[in-house]
C-alpha cells in the first residue's frame, strides 16, 4: 500500500514511459522510439498528460479519488519511482486540469 500526504496525488501515466521518455504509438501500434524526441523533461513533451490516480493526500480536492482519471498540467509531476512493479509519479491537486468520467 502507498499513501500520499498533504495535497499530493500519486498516479500512473497512461502513456508508456521508458528511460525517462514518453514512448508513443502510431494507430497501427508501431512503437515510435524514444529518439523521436518525446522527452519528459524536454519542451517536446510539454503537453498535459492523462494519469490514473493511485492515492490522494488528506488535503486534496474531494472530487479526486483513487481510480479517478485526471489530466495533469504539462511537466507538473515528479520523477517517477517503482512501487510494486508500477511506475508511480507525484503531483498535487492544484496541477489537475480536468477529471474524466
Number of strands: 9
Mean pLDDT: 81
Content of β-strand: 35-45%
The order of strands across the largest sheet is 7-8-1-5-6-9
Ranges where pLDDT stays below 50 over 5 or more residues in a row are: 31-41
Total count of helical runs of at least 4 residues: 0
Please estimate the helix content: under 10%
The biggest beta sheet is recorded as: 6 strands, antiparallel
Give the overall form: globular
Radius of gyration: 14 Å
Q: Tell me the distance between the termini.
A: 25 Å
| Helix-strand topology string | EEEEEEEEE
Structural class call reads mainly beta
Q: Can you characterise this structure?
A:
It is globular, with a radius of gyration of 14 Å. β3 and β4 form a beta hairpin. About 11% of the residues have low confidence. By secondary structure, it is mostly beta strands. The strands form 2 sheets. A 6-stranded antiparallel sheet has the order 7-8-1-5-6-9, with no helix packed on it.
Fold topology:
Blueprint: E1 8-13, E2 16-18, E3 21-25, E4 31-32, E5 49-56, E6 69-72, E7 81-83, E8 86-92, E9 96-100
Antiparallel strand pairs: 1-5, 1-8, 2-3, 3-4, 5-6, 6-9, 7-8
Short description:
The protein starts with 7 loop residues before the first strand and ends with a strand. With 101 residues, the chain is mainly beta.
Top keywords for this entry?
101 residues, six-stranded antiparallel beta sheet, three-stranded antiparallel beta sheet
Amino acid at each position: 500500500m502507498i499513501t500520499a500526504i498533504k495535497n499530493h496525488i500519486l498516479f500512473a501515466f497512461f502513456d508508456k514511459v521508458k528511460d525517462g521518455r514518453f514512448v508513443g504509438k502510431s494507430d497501427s501500434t508501431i512503437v515510435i522510439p524514444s529518439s523521436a524526441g518525446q522527452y519528459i523533461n524536454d519542451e517536446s513533451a510539454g503537453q498535459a498528460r492523462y494519469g490514473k490516480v493511485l492515492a490522494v493526500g488528506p488535503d486534496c480536492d474531494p472530487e479526486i479519488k483513487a481510480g479517478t482519471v485526471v489530466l495533469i498540467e504539462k511537466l507538473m509531476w515528479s520523477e517517477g519511482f517503482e512501487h510494486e512493479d508500477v511506475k508511480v509519479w507525484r503531483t498535487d491537486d492544484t496541477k489537475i486540469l480536468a477529471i474524466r468520467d
